[in-house]
């Protein structure tokens, strides 16, 4: 039986529904893609060089396709892990709705297309950063780190931190201190965000054999690391204002939200380590999504407020 035919069978051997368009869309990890697209767009919007809206749209499309490509390859490589985790067992590959070869082919083709589109639409600096993000996520995080070290999220998180820097480079053709600050903001946000999730999903990761920090080092060490990274976020979150890229409105929002995020980390630290439900970690995980979205939304709003006030 061909790989394509096998793709219509579930892992238990039962007949599955034919592959649908939405199954291929799910391979691209649309939730992750939405955050990547949003932060990449903000990088373009706050850059000091304004580009044509059509060019900006092509740059955002390139970032979206690159993110989706990396997600598809990630699902192809981790289909055995996904089949063992409650959170991921219903994805297209574990259920057999998409054949593994089809997922890999989609990821490779979209990777190539996204890089060609970015290089033709903008510049080679942005295309190079996009290539680095895809390669980092696939080879460094997915293939090398995730199954080998509890620091997988810390190092691998760099892949998800590239988009605002890519957007900035698409507009300016270079990498500046502001672009690096936005990179560091997401880079430092990623560990407490994912460790909050892994605290109340630790049994899932243990069953799948993924060495997430709560599985390897325990809840207490995980909470300590979450507190450290959340504290480090405060000065980094203020960096765009300190560098003069934006003004007091963003600075105020960043300060308030970062203190609130730190408050969540402190509450997680104070909870019992043997509480498998980890309600404080669940609340911190949800707040972490709001935190990053609010800070990035505040960047262009700050610039807009400055334009209005300055006439």
UniProtKB/TrEMBL annotation:
- Give the way it sits in the membrane: Multi-pass membrane protein
One GO cellular component term, please give it.
plasma membrane
Q: What class of enzyme is it?
A: transferase
Where in the cell is the protein located?
A: Cell membrane
Q: Which reaction does it catalyse?
A: heme b + (2E,6E)-farnesyl diphosphate + H2O = Fe(II)-heme o + diphosphate
Which GO MF terms are attached to this record?
protoheme IX farnesyltransferase activity
Keyword Transferase attributed: yes
In Pfam terms, one family for this protein is: UbiA
Which Gene3D superfamilies does the record associate with it?
UbiA prenyltransferase
Which family, according to the similarity comment?
Answer: Belongs to the UbiA prenyltransferase family. Protoheme IX farnesyltransferase subfamily.
Which regions span the lipid bilayer? Answer: 32-51, 57-77, 98-118, 124-145, 152-171, 177-197, 226-243, 249-269, 289-309
The protein depicted here goes by the name: Protoheme IX farnesyltransferase
Q: Which InterPro entries match?
A: Protohaem_IX_farnesylTrfase (IPR006369), UbiA_prenyltransferase (IPR000537), UbiA_prenylTrfase_CS (IPR030470), UbiA_sf (IPR044878)
Q: Which PROSITE patterns match?
A: UBIA
* Pathway membership, UniProt: Porphyrin-containing compound metabolism; heme O biosynthesis; heme O from protoheme: step 1/1
Give GO terms for biological process. heme O biosynthetic process
Protein role: Converts heme B (protoheme IX) to heme O by substitution of the vinyl group on carbon 2 of heme B porphyrin ring with a hydroxyethyl farnesyl side group.
EC number(s) stated in the UniProt entry for this protein: 2.5.1.141
Q: Which domain of life is it from?
A: Bacteria
Q: Which UniProt keywords apply?
A: Cell membrane, Heme biosynthesis, Membrane, Transferase, Transmembrane, Transmembrane helix
Q: Does the keyword Transferase apply?
A: yes
- Report the HAMAP family cross-referenced here: CyoE_CtaB
């Amino acid at each position: 039986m061909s790989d394509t035919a096998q793709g219509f069978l579930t892992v238990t051997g039962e007949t599955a529904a034919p592959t649908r368009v939405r199954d291929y869309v799910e391979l691209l990890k649309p939730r992750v893609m939405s955050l990547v697209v949003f932060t990449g767009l903000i990088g373009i919007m706050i850059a000091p060089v304004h580009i044509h809206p059509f060019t900006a749209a092509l740059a955002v499309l390139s970032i979206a396709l690159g993110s989706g490509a990396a997600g598809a390859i990630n699902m192809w490589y981790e289909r055995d892990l996904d089949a063992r985790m409650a959170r991921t067992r219903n994805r297209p590959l574990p259920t057999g709705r998409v054949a593994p070869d089809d997922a890999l082919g989609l990821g490779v083709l979209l990777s190539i297309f996204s890089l060609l589109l970015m290089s033709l639409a903008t510049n080679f600096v942005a295309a190079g950063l996009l290539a680095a993000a895809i390669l980092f996520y696939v080879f460094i995080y997915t293939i090398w780190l995730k199954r080998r070290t509890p620091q997988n999220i810390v190092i691998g998180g760099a892949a998800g931190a590239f988009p605002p820097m890519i957007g900035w480079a698409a507009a300016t053709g270079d990498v500046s201190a502001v672009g690096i600050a936005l990179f560091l903001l997401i880079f430092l946000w990623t560990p407490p965000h994912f460790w909050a999730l892994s605290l109340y999903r630790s049994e899932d990761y243990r069953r799948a054999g993924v060495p997430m920090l709560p599985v390897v080092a325990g809840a207490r060490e995980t909470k300590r690391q979450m507190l450290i990274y959340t504290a480090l976020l405060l000065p980094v979150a203020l960096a765009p204002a300190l560098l003069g890229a934006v003004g007091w409105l963003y600075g105020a929002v960043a300060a308030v939200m970062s203190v609130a995020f730190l408050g969540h980390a402190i509450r997680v630290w104070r909870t019992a380590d043997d509480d498998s439900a980890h309600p404080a970690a669940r609340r911190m995980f949800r707040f972490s999504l709001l935190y990053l979205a609010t800070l990035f939304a505040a960047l262009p709003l700050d610039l807009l407020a400055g334009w209005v006030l300055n006439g």
